[in-house]
């Protein structure tokens, strides 16, 4: 340990190698509290060259490394669970290039937060196309590594679609990638495509070249109450065909509304005992889209109550009912989180399977998510038998043509279930690729590893 620590100190300086257990503890515990380990050391390199030095030293010493950004991941992939293990924190990789207006791109260090990406883009007259509630801590590097989603996927796609270039360091310290951001370049393996969603298992992303989108100064937000999930899907279908500037279509099921409303100490703005599903809809445009939103919702028979707001405190209050569900769940305990997605037409069947699993194995469900992608965050408090709940619910999602992880990633949490969505040939090819890039297994062992 001392020899490795000395080497690392020589690379990043004494202030950036942490070994005091009181200090390293927060890097070793995930956001939910479900995954807790111990860090041998936490190292905070300040440049790509330092990341390379750190990885080379750890690989030579045979000590595995977990890359960590904001540590907001929800599947146990960002914390050390093996002994000994080094945490490589990207918190000092915060360089920000100028907004390139001609290209509508910007280069950012991997440790820049999602909120800072947005602020920086807006200072240059643009906006960031991806947004989610952990924005103040989650990093752009972590978001690329998990192929994060969030509320604007319906308009702009997931994080993978925003990456015009990146640089990453492999386990042996060699660097790959480019930040040129060329929209067209076809010469074999495309590093951003390979690294997006790789969850720190193939390389450490050190900088990203990200796309920017127009900054729509006007947002109109509605919360509507519908009688059932099927009615909510009918509302989604109508919105998709009738409006051009759809920015978010989010889902809150009644159990989740009850938990967040109690946490906020507020009454839901819409709905009553007939409500089977709430939908939060946002339109964003250069002109105020409020009239368009009201017109789009006006004649839909599935809607039995609606509240519409524009920017400002009223909108903040409305959006809090969606944005703050995760926090309100954690205030009640450590949940089992199953981030599944199915084709939207199969959402009712998915929820029937979820409720059957709860009846059989115990727990309180708090379901919500991203309606447009058929993505339900099945949170379960006081899970009776977490393994059987996960087996049945992930199994149902996959049987319905869906996935066991829509946007949070596989991490440690899904290792046992990868076979549900990947064939043996696919798992073998992924393992061979990983071995080729990281033959000594330095990077994030256990994560995305089929067991
Ligand atoms: P970390 O948690 O630090 O790491 C996540 C994974 O990426 C780990 O496997 C880690 O090893 C790897 N990693 C991190 N940085 C790098 C790097 N530079 N190079 C290589 N690998 C790296 N996610 C969504 O997709 N949509 C949401 O709507 C959403 N909402 C959330 C709301 C809340 C309140 C919370 C707590 C989480 C939410 N998340 C959401 C999950 C989480 O914020 C995202 O997965 C985010 O992308 C993680 O970023 P991070 O910087 O915190 O990464
Ligand atoms: C969200 O959509 C996040 O709010 C978090 O992806 C989901 O807490 C969760 O399960
Ligand atoms: Zn989500």
Structural features, described:
It is a single chain. With 451 residues, this protein is α+β, with helices and mostly antiparallel strands. It contains 15 helices and 17 strands. A 7-stranded antiparallel β-sheet has the order 14-11-13-12-16-17-15, with helices on both faces. A hairpin with a 5-residue loop joins β7 and β8. α1 packs antiparallel against α3 and α13 (347-361) packs antiparallel against α14 (386-399). Bound molecules: flavin-adenine dinucleotide (FAD), (2R)-2-hydroxypentanedioic acid (2HG) and zinc ion. Zinc ion is lined by residues 149, 369-370, 377, 407. Residues 132-133, 326, 337, 377, 379 line the site of (2R)-2-hydroxypentanedioic acid.
Termini Cα gap: 30 Å
Mean pLDDT: 97
Bound molecules: flavin-adenine dinucleotide, (2R)-2-hydroxypentanedioic acid, zinc ion
Report the sheet with the most strands, covering strand number, pairing sense and barrel closure.
7 strands, antiparallel
Using DSSP, what is the number of strands?
17
**Share in helix:** 25-40%
Q: What global shape is seen?
A: globular
* Low-confidence runs of at least 5 consecutive residues: none
Q: What percentage of amino acids are in beta strands?
A: 15-25%
Strands of the biggest beta sheet: in what spatial order? Answer: 14-11-13-12-16-17-15
């Amino acid at each position: 340990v001392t020899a490795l620590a000395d080497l690392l100190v020589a690379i990043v300086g004494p202030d950036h190698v942490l070994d005091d257990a009181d200090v390293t503890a927060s890097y070793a515990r995930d956001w939910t509290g479900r995954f807790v380990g111990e860090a041998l050391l936490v190292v905070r390199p300040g440049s790509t060259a330092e990341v390379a030095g750190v990885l080379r030293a750890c690989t030579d010493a045979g000590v595995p490394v977990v890359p960590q950004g904001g540590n907001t991941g929800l599947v146990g992939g960002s914390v050390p669970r093996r002994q000994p293990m080094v945490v490589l924190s990207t918190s000092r990789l915060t360089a920000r290039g100028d907004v390139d207006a001609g290209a509508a791109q910007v280069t950012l260090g991997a440790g820049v937060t999602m909120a800072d990406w947005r602020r920086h883009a807006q200072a240059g007259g643009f906006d960031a196309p991806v947004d989610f509630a952990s924005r103040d801590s989650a990093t752009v590097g972590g978001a690329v590594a998990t192929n994060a989603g969030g509320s604007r996927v319906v308009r702009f796609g997931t994080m993978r679609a925003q990456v015009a270039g990146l640089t990453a360091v492999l386990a042996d310290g060699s660097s790959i990638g480019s930040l040129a951001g060329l929209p067209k370049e076809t010469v074999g393996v495309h590093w951003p495509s390979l690294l997006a969603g790789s969850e720190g298992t193939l390389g450490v992303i050190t900088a990203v070249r990200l796309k920017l989108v127009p900054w729509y100064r006007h947002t109109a937000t509605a919360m509507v109450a519908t009688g059932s999930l099927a009615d909510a899907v009918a509302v989604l279908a109508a919105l998709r065909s009738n409006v051009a500037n759809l920015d978010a279509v989010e889902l809150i099921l009644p159990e989740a509304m009850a938990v967040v409303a109690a946490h906020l100490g507020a009454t839901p703005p819409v709905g009553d005992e007939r409500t089977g599903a709430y939908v939060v809809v946002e339109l964003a445009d250069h002109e105020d889209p409020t009239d368009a939103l009201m017109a789009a919702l006006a004649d839909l028979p599935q809607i039995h109550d609606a509240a519409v707001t524009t920017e400002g405190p009223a909108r903040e209050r409305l959006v809090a009912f969606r944005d703050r569900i995760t926090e309100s769940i954690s205030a009640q305990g450590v949940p089992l989180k199953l981030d599944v997605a199915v084709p939207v037409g199969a959402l009712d069947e998915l929820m029937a399977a979820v409720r059957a699993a709860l009846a059989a194995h115990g727990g309180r469900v708090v379901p919500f998510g991203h309606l447009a992608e058929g993505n339900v965050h099945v949170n379960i408090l006081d899970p009776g038998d977490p393994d059987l709940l996960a087996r049945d619910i992930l199994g149902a999602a996959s049987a319905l043509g869906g996935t066991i992880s829509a946007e949070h990633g596989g991490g440690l949490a899904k290792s046992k279930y990868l076979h549900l969505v990947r064939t043996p040939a696919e798992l073998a090819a992924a393992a061979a690729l990983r071995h080729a890039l990281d033959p000594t297994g330095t990077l994030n062992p256990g994560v995305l590893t089929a067991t």
